[in-house]
Amino acid sequence: MLGQIPDEVIEEVRKSNDIVDVIGEYVQLKKQGRNFFGLCPFHGEKTPSFSVTQDKQIFHCFGCGKGGNVVTFVMEIEGYNFFQAIQHLADKSGQTLPEEFQQRDENQHLSKENQDVLKAYEWLTKLYHHLLRHTKEGKEGYKYLKDRGFTDEVIDTFQLGFSPNSKDFIAQFLEKKGFHKQSMIKAGILTSNDQHNNSTDRFRGRVIFPIRNHLGKSIGFGGRTITNQEPKYLNSPETDLFQKGKLLYNFDLARSHIRKSSEAVLFEGYLDVISAHKAGIFNGIATLGTSITEAQAKLLRRYVDTVVICYDSDKAGIQASYKASKLLRSVGCNVKIASMPDGLDPDDFIRKFGDTRFKNEVILASDTYMTFMMKYIKKDYNLNLEGDRIQYVESVLDEIALIERPVEREHYLKELANEFELTVETLSQEIHSRREKIGLKQDKPKQSSHTNMTKGPYRTKKLLPAYHNAELQLIAYMLKDEAIAEKIKQELGGNFTIDQHKILVTYLYGYYEEGHEPNISHFIEKISDSDIQNLVIQIAMMPFNKDISDKEINDYIRIIQSEQSDKTKIKSLRVEQKMAEKQNDPFKAAQIGMQILEIQRQIKNSNP
Ligand SMILES: [Zn+2]
Fold first, then answer.
1. Residue ranges of the Toprim domain (predicted)?
2. DSSP letter at 51?
3. Residue ranges per domain, the chain?
4. CATH assignment of 112-242?
5. Cα 537 to ligand 1 centre (Å)
6. pLDDT confidence of 69, banded at 50, 70, 90?
7. pLDDT for res 460
8. What is the rounded average pLDDT of the residues 581-592?
9. What's the predicted TM-score (pTM) here?
10. With CB atoms 3.0 to 4.6 Å apart as the test, which of 184, 302, 356, 481 could cross-link to 189 if both were Cys?
11. What is the layout of strands, in order, in the sheet containing 284-286?
12. Which of the four CATH numbers 3.40.50.280, 3.90.580.10, 3.40.50.1580, 3.40.50.1970 does domain 7-101 have?
């Protein structure tokens, strides 16, 4: 089966992929002291407890406890096995793995049927694109896109294509390639025509918009009719490969731009994203004709602080913007809302007014959340009427009360006060009582730290017994310094009190024996047990003094040894006590009991 990839090769791949860069593609990381922090991609959270240590090349989440190195991160987040993760990282850093490890199917974690469907999508994406660009069969599609202002560069970037209006052209193509007809029908690539046992291309006669996943692979198509077929837009059906609620269109291409600007522009459909790209907006992404889901919002939150919502400016679009902004704010995003003159969508606007005006008058001029809200609420009231005015102010106050940042709240209160000639004090009182009613906290001085990193198991207030702490301290130094590990090996060997520590140091002794240098990220790869891996990471993340004196080391060793000798003593006393009871000598048994209690009392006193 799988041959082992040589250690040096793995090491080389790991060295060429800095953990901060790799994780940075999935999580927005901010430097804080020596570490980077971000929102954990493995569990939902609003305050960052996910930390990455560059010098140790490891990550650790103080919230859910996950941790590892760059390889385990890729395995975890992409659902890859070890080999796939190495392959993925090697590709990223432009390395070529030795011949015998190549050509393994990177999709082998998928079912055979899904692997086929992915391959079919890959072939068809190329074929449709080729037909559009270079053949007379694709000419009408090409002309349609050109008429709509699409440049060749855009057509190539998004691999736009055309499916000729032929009954069996695509079906035959797929058959020749050896794809199973039933799986193609199941995936929604072909539609079956039961009467004649024929199948036809579902997208025939349409311009094709390949829909890529975050790795840039086509997993579905959108087809736009150019001859007034119904429906105007046709998407691939939902399958386990193609789940609209989890997917963000163009995320693969936009990701690096999103990361740089810490901002994403959210559109309603792929056409808007492509038009915006043409206009120089490269951080655009879209849901696929459905409203944004919580999963998508959380995914975005990991990458950005701010999302600019740029939906159609008709009634439905504004309603959708309202919903999306609520959801995005609930996961912690800062939201802005772009708007266009009545009824237009982004693609209309760009075609009508051009790229520059779209950028300046729509994207850069987008409203803040509250400004949008005030407009949104206003549409239901006639502010010339006294009663409506009061109700309007009440509704706006309801919204302002929900804003987390006091500065922001004050800003809008002032605006509201000015507009309706009210005093800020009155309005502030209103806010105060509203917040109280819904159980939101009143303003307190801000906490200095905005991360959750104090949550870790070894950072809790609860003090550990002295021997436990001594073992953790020793291991921390042993991980960093081979000489210290050697000394401990001589004096304590594997005689640590906590079972997990015993296993850990056994791995560590073996690691050094193999001639490796201290290297956390490398070391954890040698450990098959993920609990022990996490323990190593946790210990490596503990704050500790740079240098340790021999005396300190000896103290720790002594604490551990005396704990153990106490334990052994108690054990043998218990045996003696049993014997005494058996021999019907209650006096002796009681005496021994006293001795045990005394040792236990001493242990208790020596531990905090
Ligand atoms: Zn976590």
1. 262-343
2. E
3. 7-101, 112-242, 247-352, 380-437, 463-608
4. 3.90.980.10
5. 14
6. very high
7. 44
8. 86
9. 0.72
10. 184
11. 284-286, 263-267, 306-309, 334-337, 367-368
12. 3.90.580.10
Secondary structure class of 38 (helix, strand, coil): strand
Q: How far is the CA of 454 from the centre of ligand 1 (A)?
A: 13
Taking only the tens place, the pLDDT of each residue in 498-544 is 889 999 999 999 999 999 999 999 999 888 888 899 999 999 888 76
Query: How many angstroms does the Cα of residue 391 sit away from the middle of ligand 1?
Result: 43
- Cα of 42 from ligand 1 centre, angstroms: 5
Q: Ligand 1 centroid to 44 CA: how many Å? A: 7
Q: How far is the CA of 51 from the centre of ligand 1 (A)?
A: 9
Quote the ligand 1 centre to 604 CA distance (angstroms).
35
Looking at CATH, the fold of the domain delimited by 463-608 is given as DNAb Helicase; Chain A (1.10.860)
- Distance of CA 403 from the midpoint of ligand 1 (Å): 26
Query: How far is the C-alpha of 507 from the C-alpha of 482, rounded, in Å?
Result: 13
- With a cut of 90, say whether residue 545 has pLDDT above it: no
CA atoms of 273 and 599, how far apart (whole Å): 73
Give dist(CA 285, CA 80) in Å, integer. Answer: 25
pLDDT tens digits, 89-133: 999 998 888 777 765 555 666 788 899 999 999 999 999 999 999
Q: How far is the CA of 294 from the centre of ligand 1 (A)?
A: 18
Do 214 and 87 contact (CB within 8 A), yes or no? no
- Two tokens, residue 470: 């001594």
Contact 251, 229 (CB under 8 A): no
